[in-house]
Amino acid sequence: MILTIGYLSERTFSHVVSYLTKNKIAHQVLDLGSLRKATSIRIEEDFSQGNLCIQVDGHTYDFFDYNAYYFRLFYVNQHQDEYNVALSKLIATVYAFAESTRKLVVNRPSAGASNINKFRHLLELQNYGFKTIPTFILGSVWSAQNLLDPKGSYIVKGCSSMKTKTALVDPHIFSRIRRLDTAPALFQPRITGDEVRVHFVGDRYFAERISSARLDYRFAEEDTPANKFAPCTPPPQIIAQCIRYCKTDQLYFAGFDFKVTAEDEWYIFECNPMPGYETYDKRAGTAISAALIDLLTGKTVPFPPAALQPEDREPFIPSYNRPDVTPS
Amino acid sequence: MQKKRFALIRRSAEEQTALSAAFLELGIPFTDICTEPQVVIDTVDGRNGQVTVFLDGVSIQDFALLFYFNFPFRFGDMRKPTRDELFILQEKTQAFLAALATLPRNRVVNTGLVFSWNKTLQNQSFFKHELSKFGLAVENEHFQMETCLVPATDHDIDYSPVLLKADRQIAGDPLIPSGRDKICRFLALYGLDWVLVGWRKKEGQPVVAKVIADGNHLTIIQAKIIIETLIL
Q1: Looking at the complex, does the CB of residue B101 fall below 8 Å from at least one CB of chain A?
Q2: Which of A123, A228, B83, B204 has a CA that sits 20 to 30 A from residue A129's CA?
C-alpha cells in the first residue's frame, strides 16, 4: 500500500494519483487541499516507535500501514489561522517522519534539498563534475552596473526555488537595475542551445531534448514558434554524474535540466528534487510514471548494486605484496 | 598577529540580546550584522570557483566566526503579505544563505542551520525523531486542530545548552551524562555547535520536550558559556 500526500488540485500530484487509480495500484490519498473543509484534524507522533498517525474527520492514516510514500508537500495559505497552523504542523510532522523512516519515500526532504537555493545548488553540482554557468547574486546597484550590460549578454532569474521566468538583461531590464536594492537577483552569462530534461527514477532515466525559440521554453509566447520535443540519449558521463548525485543524496526521483550548446557542451541548470513531470510523461507514453510506480511497489530497487566484476575481487593489499606461502 | 573578528548575525537589536550582552560583558568586540531594516547582499560571485561575498560593504570572509541562528528575514507584522513581499522575503533569504553557504563550514556557528534550509533542523519533530534514534527519552507530540490556537504551557521545562566542544561539557542541569553523549553525537552529525535542550521530568526521569537552536531563549550566563566555549 502506497500513501500519497499532496494537493489533488495540483497537476503533478493529480497525474500520479490518476495513474495509480487507473492501474489499480493499492494506495491512499491525503489531499491537503481538503483540509480546509475538515472539522477535526489530529496528529499523533510516537517517537519511540518512529510512527505518525494523522486523523482527518475520523479517517485515520497510520503511517505504519504503508510500504512506501509519495509526497508533494508545500505550504498553501488556507486563509484561516487554525487551518494554517494545522497544515504547517502536518507538513512539519510528515517531513520529520519522511526523514526518519527506513521505508521508501519519494523523496525525503533532505534529498536534493540544496535546490531551494540556486547558487548553493550549483556549487554542489560542481562537486559532482557537472559543468555550470558562472553565476552571480547581485544586490548592489554599483556591482550590477559594473558587471552587466544592456546588450542581452546576461540572463536574470530568482535566487530561491520560487518559479521565475528567465529573462534577458535587455535595455528594459537594465533600466530597472536600481530595484536590486529591494531584493537581489541571480545573473548568468547567456548561453544558447537546446534544453535537455532528464528524469531519473532510481538509475532508470528518460531524457528529452527541447528545441525552442524562447529564452525560457516553459513559458508560452504568442509570437514565437512552438517548441520541438524529441527523446534523446545524454552522454554516458552525464548519466554517471546524475546517478552519483542521486545516489549520494538518496534522491529516488529527480528532474535534471541542462543547456546543450552547438559544440555539445552540457551545462547543468539544476536538479529538481520534486519534479513536475506530467507533460514529459505524457509525451513519453507514461513511461516515467510506470518506472515511478515500479519503484514505489518494490518491483525495482532505487540503486541496484553494480554487478561484481572479476577484477573487483582483488583485495586492498595486492597479490604482489602477499608472498605465496603454499607448500610446493 | 591579526586580532580575530567575530560577527553576530541577527534580525534586529531586539533579538539575541543575551548573546550581544554576553559579548559586551566578556569584553569581546564583535560586528553586529542586523538584517533589518536592510542588509545589502552586494555580490556573491561564482566565477571560476572564486567566491567573494560582501554584506553592507564588509567582506564576510574577514570574520573568524559568525554566529547565526535563524531565518535572517521575516515579515514586519502579522498582516497578510502581498505577493511581492513574499517573493522579496524568499529572494533575500536565499541570497543571504547562499552567501553564508560559501564560507567554510567551521566559520559559521551552527552551520547546519544554513545547510538544512527550511526542512529539517527548524523542525521539532525531526529533532525528536533523531534524538529518539540516539536512544534518548523524548516526549511524544499530540496535535488537535480544535485547540491549536491555545498557547502551550511550557513553564515546567528546564532549558540547558549542550555544546559539542569543550570536552563535551554541558552547562546547566538536570542533564544525565548518558544524554550528553547522545546529544553531542547528534550535534556532530547535523553540523550544530550547540542547542538548547528543554527537559521535563516525567515519573522522575528527564525527557526531552523541546530542542532549540535559537539564541533568543538563552540567559546571559548561558550565552557567555557558549561564546567562551566556541571562540576562546
Answers
A1: yes
A2: A228
